[in-house]
Amino acid sequence: FGIASGENFVITMTNRREITEDNFSELVQGGVTLYLLQTADQMLLSATKERIDFLPHYDTLVKSGMYEYYASEGQNPLPFALAELIDNSLSATSRNTGIRSIQIKLLFDDSQGKPAVAVIDNGRGMTSKQLNNWAVYRLSKFTRQGDFESDHSGYVRPLPVPRSLNSDISYFGVGGKQAVFFVGQSARMISKPADSQDVHEFVLSKEDF
Fold first, then answer.
1. Between the CA atoms of 67, 70, 71 and 77, what dihedral angle is there, to the nearest 10 degrees?
2. What residue ranges carry the coiled-coil annotation (predicted)?
C-alpha cells in the first residue's frame, strides 16, 4: 500500500469499527468492505463504491411488485405499497427520544430527475452493511445481520400508540422491495448512522440490472 515503515495506520469496517486481534475472526464471514486509514475517524478523500451479490435472479425482484399487487383482489394497492415504503422509517425512528419526523414527498418535477416517491426520516440511520442486507429477498428484518448483529435481536412488539403505526408492516423482508418495483423502477436509499460521519448510499435499479 506504499506505507512508510514509521507510519501508523488502522483497518476499519465501513462503520469505522477498527479491526483488532479480538474481532479479526468475524471477517471470515466474507463480504466485508475494509478501509485502510491513518485514524479510525479520518475523513474519506473520495466516495467508495462496493458491489454486492445476492440471490435470487434480479427478475424475481423487478417483477415481484407486479405479481404481489396485481393479486390485490380488486383493492387499490397504492396505499399498501406506500405503507411498505415507510416501514424502514417506522423502525428507524422507534427509539427516538425527541421528535419523531417522517415525511413522504411525491416528486413530479422532471427538472430534478425522474418522478419519485421520497420518504425522509430523522431516525438512527443504517450502516452500509445494513443497507446491503435490505436488498436480500426473504431475509426478515428481525433476523438479518446488521454489522454482524441484528438491530432487532430480542425484538418485542411495542405497545400500541394512539394514532401511530408500529414497525411490523414488512415483517418478512419482502414488502419493501415489492413496493419499490410496483411504484417505480429503482430504489435509492441514503443514510447516515447517528454515530458516524459517513453517509451511505444504496441503489437497486432495474436499468442497472
1. 120
2. none
